[in-house]
Amino acid sequence: MQYCTLSTAPPWRRRDLVPNKNNGPSGHWDSSLCSRVPLCTRNWEGVCVLRGIRVTDALTLPPQGWRALPNPPLPLLSPLQINFNEPLSMLQRLTEDLEYHELLDRAVKCENAIEQMCFVAAFSVSSYSTTVQRTAKPFNPLLGETFELDRLEELGFRSLCEQVSHHPPAAAHHVYSRKGWTLWQEITIASKFRGKYLSILPLGTIHLEFHSSGNHYIWQKVTSTVHNIIVGKLWIDQSGDIEILNHKSKDKCHLKFTPYSYFSRDIPRKVTGVVMDADGNERYVMSGTWDEKMECSKVIEASQGNSISEGKLPKTVYQTLSPKVLWKKYPLPENAENMYFFSKLALTLNEPEDDVAPTDSRMRPDQRLMENGKWDEANMEKQRLEEKQRAVRRYREVEAADALAEGKDYKGYIPLWFERKVDPLTGELMCMYKGGYWESKEKQDWSQCPSIF
């Protein structure tokens, strides 16, 4: 996808889209589009609810970093000491996709599906903004582990994740918003070690449905790459393409995440895209970076430019109106460099809550010990939990062998809150929320939960 845009209005003065030393954006912004989540959020009755503002300082690793290990480190592939972790699980990291949920709240109010698509596209990009400096490894969830984020009274939504498979690792996620949308997904993590870098490929489709219009969007995530996995300073890049489809209107958005290149003159972490209607007409151009902001420009006219060289397609030239900022990244909290570069939302995710399920990530003893700075105890507890999980897996293998010998069917592990179904839109077999969790929470009846910790 190659194109360039020509604005019909005088362009804004814009600085380079590169994070500054304060880890926050600056420049000309449309503040009405980009509200900031305060430390004190107000619920629907206007009562101020205070959330966490810091975690224990991160452990400082020796200069040799990953090379201090006796064997080559493979995050997500092999067990590591918690010294290389951050005190959040992968389920909590998945929940961080909702940091900019207000983009979807705003999309509900759009007058037409094309404008709504622009906000959905910005939301799909915003989920990567937390990854730019987050090089520590999240805890691998145990099979049956869950994580809830109940912000129904404060922010209008509640979210539930469950680890539904261990080999391969897969998590199911369901979010309901009383402001008019529902999101669900099942993500399976595949990874490839390439010597100097590790490619992380999230497999699975994300679904988003708006209640009033019935617009149903689907898309998939791009590839994340961890560079300098053995030697040097770790850094993360996102690359690939996202195609968002509205199944009701047939509108599409194609987004391209440009991989970093030392020899390229492009802005680092660049994202470009085009929103098209059902007839294939280009309606909006999307541009920005996945770590800082996204904006859209309404297309007035599109034309084919001259081909630069043989064998290459000519660029499409778009004449557009002035860009409109849809999303920008929130500034990180003070002292973020000593707190794993957590965002304000991430700082609240591991706060103890008494009424959550006993399988919730907040209840993980190794993760809690690490957050409290008890590194040795956390490592021992992590080993205990992993051995307990292996023992349960061996027991299931024996059950499966016995069932096979007797000619009986063996269903294997069955998730508690999700069930595997064929998705009618994509034809994929995926885990969908079957209900019951929030009712169990209201009754405080967790008798059906397994003992995993």
Automatic annotation (TrEMBL):
Which Gene3D superfamilies does UniProt cross-reference here? 2.40.160.120
Membrane-spanning intervals of the chain: none
Q: Where in the cell is it found?
A: Membrane
The record's GO CC annotations read:
cytosol; perinuclear endoplasmic reticulum; plasma membrane
Keywords per UniProt: Lipid transport, Lipid-binding, Membrane, Phosphoprotein, Transport
| GO molecular function annotation | cholesterol binding
Matching entries from InterPro entries are given as:
OSBP_sf, Oxysterol-bd, Oxysterol-bd_CS
> Quick one: a GO biological-process term for this protein?
lipid transport
Fetch the SUPFAM superfamilies from UniProt: Oxysterol-binding protein-like
Q: Does the keyword Repressor apply?
A: no
| Keyword Nucleotide-binding listed | no
Annotated membrane topology is: Peripheral membrane protein
**Family the entry assigns:** Belongs to the OSBP family.
Protein name, UniProt field: Oxysterol-binding protein
Per the UniProt entry, what species is this protein from, by scientific name?
A: Laticauda laticaudata
